[in-house]
Specification:
By secondary structure, this protein is mainly α. The chain has one domain. Helix 1 runs antiparallel to helix 2 and helix 1 crosses helix 4. The longest helix is centred in the middle third of the chain and has 18 residues. It is globular and about 35 Å long. The chain starts with 21 loop residues before the first helix and ends with a helix.
């Protein structure tokens, strides 16, 4: 599996968010939403809403270095944090296994 959340499409590591290929960013958010739906059982509309709000907030309030650090996070961890809704969510072995299966087949 190619690690798209930290690489450009050309497989080059980036040091500034502006260097990221836009297709990498556009692929990142659906992965977070899909993980929310298929791994953490968040309703589709709720998943889309929370992902859209997070992305808008990051793009409007986040500094460039913060944005780059964010895109280095695995979509699984971002989805787990969103699924916890401000609380602590202990990731289960089953959730991790579902993510690995989804990532291996879909990405």
């Amino acid at each position: 599996m190619v690690d798209l959340h930290t690489k450009n499409a050309g497989d080059d590591t980036v040091s500034e968010v502006g260097e990221l290929d836009s297709s990498v960013i556009e692929a990142y958010w659906p992965r977070v939403g899909e993980t929310l739906r298929r791994v953490f059982n968040v309703a589709s509309g709720d998943a889309e809403d929370v992902v859209r709000k997070l992305r808008r907030r990051l793009e409007s309030e986040g500094r460039a270095d913060t944005q780059l650090q964010f895109y280095h996070l695995d979509p699984f961890q971002v989805a787990a944090d969103l699924a916890a809704r401000g609380g602590v969510h202990v990731i289960t072995a089953d959730e991790r296994s579902r993510y690995v299966d989804i990532a291996a087949s879909a990405w």
